Amino acid sequence: MIHEKYQLAVPAAPEVALAILKDVEGMDAWLRPHLPRWPKITASTWVVERTDDGDPLLVAAKTSALGISDETLTAYRWTPDGVTTTLRSSRVLRSSQSTYAIEETAAGTSLMRVEVSADVKIRLPRILERRMESVQRDFATALQRAFVAEAERRRRR
């Protein structure tokens, strides 16, 4: 089981940070430049179903890393200050849940608290399990850098 918690200072107002979370289809464009060169991680994500307000409700993704490919379906539950995602189906993952909670700082920027957990269905050799944990940490770091860069880009518009 992988379980990560971190906080991210976002150089933008909470509504901008929330808009970035809702930009599921644009994620590849703002995330890709920040991903590590190795292992190669590929992903394509699209919205299957939206709320009446147009927010992503059900999201599909195709991913590949370390020679392991997967197709997932994830449910999104939006709140005024963030989102919780819950895995609905996957060939590789038994479960996965992420919570992104955004709060405004005194400076008018945002602090995002992130909690991510995932459990793999198949038993992997310990060396590959450690490598997957490392890839997950690298991905989380890349996501943090990408999110901050995208917030800065949107703030300057």
From TrEMBL:
Pfam families: Polyketide_cyc2
Domain of life (superkingdom): Bacteria
Annotated source species: Gordonia araii NBRC 100433
Name of the protein this chain belongs to: Coenzyme Q-binding protein COQ10 START domain-containing protein
InterPro entries named among the record's database cross-references: Polyketide_cyclase/dehydratase (IPR019587), START-like_dom_sf (IPR023393)
